[in-house]
Amino acid sequence: MSPTAVAGLRLELSLVQPVLRSAAARMWRSDAGLPGRYRHYLRAMHQVIRASVPLMERAADRCELLTRDPVAPHLARYLRAHAEQERGHDDWLLTDAAAAGTAPGELTDTAPPACVAALVGAQYYWIEHSHPVALLGYIAVLEGNAPAPGLAGRLARETGLPQAAFETVRLHADLDDGHSADLDRLIGRLPLDRAQHSLVAVSALHTVTTLAELFDRIAAASTLSGSLHE
């Protein structure tokens, strides 16, 4: 996949990302429900992010079985290294939740709603039944839509929650731009064929759609007791 193809993927994403940005804006709107929505966000993001390292490790395992695939060894090395960079980020969310007054069990013991299962579960399907390169589309969206640098401070001011409740938002605003650039360089170097290129794009577009649905469900949940399953 050439740098031109990487630019093409980014262009495709730019056409649908306004949907994701609009959903995020609704979720972060300034009103009395913002503290409850933020706690919903922590719970949903924990359900998503706790799958990140297992997804990357499984994809790397699958790559190592594809002994004749020229993409696989480069992809496996990237995924192993990136898994180590992401390890423990789900624990950050538990710490933030505790600072926001939410017991960790409310994050770990709640069944993920269907939109989270659709967001993450599609990646498992493509890894197992198509090609692990699909995961790059998922990573491209999650890391290409990092929180804005000032979001943590604004949320702290408007919710009245302590600054310590927003560490994951702040850290991902700092880290994900660099990770996104690393990913673009990798995709530009990989010798993807047409089918693999298409799979990365399909995965990315699916991720945008399902992540926007998740944000919209959080935006509609006015209290922490409200359900995202509905």
Task: Find the structural class using helix and strand composition.
Answer: mainly alpha
What's the order of the H and E elements?
HHHHHHHHHHH
User: Helix amount, in percent?
Assistant: over 70%
Which overall shape is indicated by the principal axes computed on the Cα atoms?
globular
Proportion of β residues? under 5%
In whole angstroms, the N-to-C terminal distance is 41 Å
What is the overall pLDDT average? 90
- Rg (C-alpha, Å): 18 Å
The total strand number stands at 0
State the low-pLDDT regions, or none: none
Largest sheet: none
Helix segment count?
Answer: 11
Give me some keywords for this one.
0% strand
Notes on the protein architecture:
The protein is globular. It is built from 11 helices and no strands.
List the helices and strands and how they pair.
Layout lengths: L2 H25 L6 H16 L2 H14 L6 H15 L2 H11 L5 H4 L5 H16 L5 H10 L6 H9 L7 H23 L4 H27 L10
Helix pairs in contact: 1-10, 1-11, 2-5, 2-11, 3-4, 3-7, 7-11, 8-10, 8-11
In short:
The protein is mainly α. The protein is built from eleven helices and no strands.
